[in-house]
Amino acid sequence: MANKTVTLTDNTTGKSIELPVMQGSVGPEVIDIRSVYKELGMFTYDPGFASTAACSSDITYIDGDKGTLLYRGYPIEELAEHSSYLEASYLLWYGALPNAEQYAEFVDKVKRHTMIHEGLKDFYAGFHRDAHPMAIMVGIVGSLSAFYHDSLDVWDARHREISAYRVFAKLPTIAAWAYRYSQGQPFVYPRNDLEHSENFLHMMFAFPSEEYTVSPVAKRALDLILMLHADHEQNASTSTVRLAGSTLANPFAAISAGVAALWGPSHGGASEAVVNMLETIGTVDQIPKYIEKAQDKDDTFRLMGFGHRVYKNFDPRAKLIRTACYEVLEELKVEDPMFDLAMALEERALKDEYFIKRKLYPNVDFYSGVIFRALGIPKNMFTVVFTIGRSIGWLSQWNEMLQDDEFRIGRPRQRYTGPVSRPYVPIEKR
Ligand code: SDX
User: Which residues contact 354 (CB under 8 A, 6 or more apart)?
Assistant: First the structure.
């Protein structure tokens, strides 16, 4: 294709500039606006970055209109049916599905990094027992660079890989111990005879006093949840990791910034907010009242777990998690009226003009809480589990950024609307 361009014209000066249009392998073309400030002395303006591509990436593709999600080109539905969280993690980091030997080596390497420095155990004691586990996650993950500083040269691919294994493998241990600490229970160490998701559940719920076997249903359900949360192109927390990493901050610092960003109820904190919302709604007959509240601009209430910046159709992850809800509740013989309430709310909202017009559908966070409850995971640990799942996405995007020929420190500009050059007035004259 001839080099496509778009023309930008300043209608006050008549000056026009040609901006190159770049194609991806799929999805919207992008206008390369890097010359705009130099040529026209103007910035582009896009609060919330709804129309801005911040980078090029080979990792994850989302088509919000079709409800498509690809990890390195593989549809999430196929990975959910045939793959595992660890295999999908290998795919996200290395860019290809592993053969049997590569997978076995990957699993073994991850197992070798699940323990954390014994000195880190004392960090937990500094937190109040009722500290939110995400606060503990931000603190402990950020402190990892104080313990693992032998491989922090971010320009060294091997150092990046070692640090990635450390973050990826240690997060389940750090997370489970945050829960155990909040319960006043002893820490349970990771075990190399258990699979990744199984190990986390064992560290969460086992006791030194007796054998604890993780149910295959729980293991499989958690593995699916972690896979579905693994990556999602340039969402807020991934963009945070990229921005923090663009200063060449060490990976533990960059990832802890992502953990902090994920915590917000508009992002990864939504899964906890959904359950709080469903508890507030209480019963199906209250649904119409809350559907109305969600539309009232004077009311801060929003339907948590609904809507998405990119998906203007069903979030494919929400569909997969909703199906898994049925299976988990059925197989664990758990009756959870919250699942019925969630489905009734979904059905009611999707018939409502306000939600239809704005293309607001359930997102990944709408049903995940139902599964977490069935697995015995408490509300304040939902976003912690999201953190474990998303860690490989953050790490893979961080790693990609540092190999990008177009890599630069991220430094957005602004439209200044403040006062212009006011003279200082001594305090006695104010
Ligand atoms: C995640 O980016 C990702 O990929 C994120 C994520 C990932 O995997 O990383 O998918 C994970 O964060 C999922 C989203 C979880 N958050 C929630 O469920 C919180 C509830 N949702 C909303 O806060 C909202 O939908 C956002 C934050 C998700 C998206 O916000 P946008 O894109 O800025 O959309 P918007 O606020 O501009 O909404 C457009 C309209 C507005 O109404 P109008 O001004 O046009 O009248 O839709 C309304 C909004 O008021 N709206 C909602 C709503 N979400 C949007 N109204 C009621 N309830 C909602 N949930």
Answer: 291, 294, 295, 360
User: What is the C-alpha to C-alpha distance for residues 114 and 261, in angstroms, rounded to an integer?
Assistant: 24
Ligand 1 in reach of 137 Cβ (< 6 A)? no
Give the closest residue (by CA) to ligand 1 atom 48: 358
Q: What is the rounded distance in angstroms from the CA atom of residue 159 to the CA atom of residue 248?
A: 13
- pLDDT over 60 at 70, yes or no: yes
The residue to mutate among 49, 70, 363, having the most atoms of ligand 1 within 8 angstroms of its beta carbon, is 363
CA 126, CA 218: separation in Å to the nearest integer?
Answer: 32
- Ligand 1 touching residue 364 (CB < 6 A): yes
CA-CA distance, 187 to 190, in Å (whole number)? 10
Distance CA 123, CA 126 (A): 6
User: 311 pLDDT exceeds 60?
Assistant: yes
CB 260 within 8 A of CB 240: yes
Four-point Cα dihedral 31, 76, 386, 169, nearest 10: -100
Nearest CA to ligand 1 atom 55: 307
A 10 A CB-CB count for 30 gives 15
Chain CA centroid to CA 380, Å: 16
**One-letter amino acid for residue 97 of the chain:** L
DSSP H stretches of helix in 263-363: 270-281, 287-295, 316-331, 337-349, 353-357
Is the shortest distance between the CB of 365 and ligand 1 below 6 Å? yes
SS3 69: strand
Residue type, 1: M
Please determine, for residue 2, whether its predicted confidence score (pLDDT) is greater than 90. Answer: no
Q: Is the CB of 294 under 6 A from ligand 1?
A: yes
For residue 28, the tally of other CB atoms under 10 A from its CB is 10
Cα 380 to Cα 202, 206, 411: the distances in Å are 18, 19, 34
Over residues 367-392, the pLDDT tens digits come to 999 999 999 999 999 999 999 999 99
- Can you tell me whether residue 31 is helix, strand or coil? strand
Clarify whether 196 is annotated catalytic: no
Name residue 378's amino acid: P
